[in-house]
Automatic annotation (TrEMBL):
Transmembrane annotation, as ranges: 6-22, 29-48, 54-77
Keyword S-adenosyl-L-methionine: no
Organism: Exiguobacterium antarcticum
Origin organism lineage: Bacteria, Bacillati, Bacillota, Bacilli, Bacillales
Pfam families: Transgly_assoc (PF04226)
UniProt-recorded name of the protein: GlsB/YeaQ/YmgE family stress response membrane protein
Length: 83
């Protein structure tokens, strides 16, 4: 059951980050979950674990990390599509 909650929270984090940026995450729901998980790792590495914690995710750093990840991915995809 804990893994299911982690998937749900990871998806919500990725979705919130995409809403804040106004950019869709490639891959739909799966992309949101991946952005939430990877963004959480990036955010906690850069900003630490502070703020509310849900299902093992420190929410604020996780959202900030997911925003950074989405910006990087959208920059890379834009550069590749220009070729």
């Amino acid at each position: 059951m804990g893994f299911l909650w982690a998937l749900i929270v990871g998806g919500i984090i990725g979705w919130l980050a995409s809403l804040i940026l106004g950019k869709d995450v490639p891959g739909g729901i799966i992309g949101n979950i991946i952005a939430g998980f990877v963004g959480s790792m990036i955010g906690q590495a850069l900003f630490g674990s502070w703020g509310p914690d849900i299902a093992g995710f420190a929410i604020v750093p996780a959202i900030l990390g997911a925003i950074i990840l989405i910006l990087i991915v959208s920059f890379i995809l834009r550069a590749v599509n220009k070729r």
